[in-house]
């Protein structure tokens, strides 16, 4: 097939309005997965795409869907299933970008942790494409709030990741509730047996396309990653910046809103920062880059698109505050440093649920990214004290202190205190904005433990190590101060401990070993969570849904939490929940994945 047209996409059969949108956003030539997949999907044939994250597969399925959409039909015509809410949001944003020239196009991202009422309103108004996580899509199908009568395309994005996260049964349940005559496109980085089974059972003579990623990173750039809890990313970032010897920094986030938010939060912590995103006009963009070059600002927080073409010699560090979903985007990001023969450093902040993206980047680039840990509170204290001593010594040697000596003499005379006591008071005042002694923070001082279910290099962990790890987890939790909370969902609503663990761990990205005791009662439940929860996280958890109900999380006194007690025997029937709704399948669906855990 010829690929010599103006942009390279017209030759694939895409309509002009889509090609113009692609040109506007800087897409010139289709990637291999796009070049091979788009013609197949435009013909409404089933497809099995084997490709790593970052090869451009979102556009590979989004563009054919947009080309075939019927805007006069105001109900879902395409359903995209994604393993995580982050990926669901990213796919929905990509659709919106590609559909820039399509008036009246509507897409609804639906996932656990988002207000169910907002999703219901959006679906009721009418949408053409739905992208969501399996658990929340199932919720809407059970509520009859998601009508798939006019569905003609289903996409399973990162199918092997959905398998790893335990969603494959849910995916099969959803496929069984879609029209028989529909197109299915399955994308996966690997082909484990369960994915082969889905391919055999639900895809009709699919076209198989396999793409090998060939992207390589700049070897002179030192690459590191830090495993962090998402609700503490800004605190982790602050620690990193305090110990890194940087000059200029470009920091990457996923959204325009996040550039402004993070830049403001860094400014509040004393770092000269500015945002750079697609909403900023060219003049302001030029001013910001010039300020970075001249040293008036030290940190630019940018999106991928906004950072294109930046070449500032003083940029020594690139920080991926949000890990990119696209491997090629990672390479472009870190390429902002280490230019023209200079060395550079790239740091990734990775949450536990994003490890698969890290591994994908490593596989794609063929280079390992070294894990490093956050500096502890003790290390920060030692560093700050050392810097304070150096500052005092430098001032004693180089500054004219005569006026201040007179002032201190007056204070000594008035107070009758010793010179040491007055000097200590001055030191206390001097460090009030940035305390010399850093308070211990359990979730930042101790490294996040790897998920015991994660396999490394294809090898299973030794069972004896797993037993040891469980004991370690219990010991770690015992050392973490806990607060008690009440939530407005209980046994009568079908809630189980796994539902609460899944919902809270997913929204807060908190390792499950840091979730304490859970007590389930008929109409409410109680749970212990680490002390010092940020206000914004507490507010977010109030809106998380479990079994179709918002948690409405609220803190209670420790003595108000009932003691754990044995669960009553399970009653007959369907167990008060959603068991038995699997179209005749023998196994009940894993309920911890039902709602908020998606």
From TrEMBL:
The keyword Cell division is annotated on this UniProt entry: no
Gene3D superfamilies: 3.30.70.330, P-loop containing nucleotide triphosphate hydrolases
Domain Helicase C-terminal positions: 233-381
UniProt keywords, alphabetically: ATP-binding, Cytoplasm, Helicase, Hydrolase, Nucleotide-binding, RNA-binding, Stress response
Residues annotated as domain Helicase ATP-binding: 38-209
SMART domains attached to this UniProt entry: DEXDc (SM00487), HELICc (SM00490)
GO BP term (any one): ribosomal large subunit assembly
Predominant location: cytoplasm
Domain of life: Bacteria
Main EC class the enzyme belongs to: hydrolase
Membership in a protein family: Belongs to the DEAD box helicase family. DeaD/CsdA subfamily.
Name the record gives this protein: ATP-dependent RNA helicase DeaD
